[in-house]
Amino acid sequence: MIASQMNVRPASVRSMRAAPKAGRNSTAVIVNAAGNWYPGTETPAHLASSSLPGNFGFDPLGLGKDADKLKWYAQAELQHARWAMLGVAGCLGAELFSGANWFEAGSQPTFADPKVLYGIQFFLMGWAEARRLQDYEKPGSANQDPIFSNNTLPAGNTPGYPGGIFDPASFAKGNVEELKLKEIKNGRLAMVAFLGFVAQHAAVGGTPLENLSKHLSDPWLNNAITNGVSVPLAKAADGTISVWDTTSINPW
What we know:
Elements: H1 2-7, H2 11-18, H3 45-48, H4 67-98, H5 114-137, H6 176-204, H7 208-217
């Protein structure tokens, strides 16, 4: 009976038993397969062979099964990540150096009529985005500047990573793939961070640094559970019970 049970052990178990024992001073390192975002899960087939930066096989809704859509989603995530990093840095920087808060910045007076500024921004951003779309649909077709002919992007660049004048510090001469991974990781973190800014202000008001300071001063008293809004039926710091009555909340 015991012998038969031993014979049906998986090959992986038998191979582990047959492996030589590690020395006393040796260190065993277990590395998950690339693309495996959660240990023990299998990477979706449409992501298993993908070389996209930051690909950890996370696609629970199967949105990337279409190769063309996956390519578009990757570009969309990259752009949102970059804007989120700029936005979070702008929110924190403005508050840190001038005391301004992000949720009232749009109401501040400007040097020109806002309609004029919006019109200029619409034109400039529209032109830049049209060029980016052109390069996405036909890589390399937007490498030549149509106005300043001396400005040319390097040949062989990929959509989203133009290089050339967009890489003044020459980072592309290093390990580009590692930098792409770092960028998308920081961008994803920034997107979550800005979502946190919005949710935090909607729940308790205040600025990110103000709320951080309050939390650090008394973490057990000032947190998401005790703010009286985020968690239903949780006791707030003032002793009241949250029932998600948002009729009295006006975060804007």
